[in-house]
Amino acid sequence: MIDEEEAGSDKVTARTRAFEEIDAQVFPGPGRGATQAEAAASDRWGEPSPTTVEAYRRMVALVHQLARRSTMGATGHRLQ
After folding, report:
1. Do residues 32 and 24 lie in contact, with contact meaning Cβ atoms separated by under 8 Å?
2. Cα angle vertex 42, ends 33, 40, to 5°?
3. pLDDT tens, position by position, 7-18
4. Is 25 strand, coil or helix?
5. With the C-alpha atoms ordered 75, 77, 79, 80, is the resulting torsion angle positive or negative?
6. Using CA atoms, how far apart are residues 58 and 56, in angstroms rounded to an integer?
């Protein structure tokens, strides 16, 4: 992998890469900076609520838990 490439970029299909290139040109968003409308909306809304923060923490914990399960063998040891 070349230093400028994102991790996993070698696993992206040509179709996905083409879509991402068009998407980057048409729809500014994550990684490309916010549009003026997105920045204004962010300023209006401010920080997420404590309920939203907790919901995201639980979702992230669940994803990590499921990821660990999928890399464990029947013996409970990590698969190589």
Report:
1. yes
2. 80
3. 777 777 888 888
4. helix
5. negative
6. 5
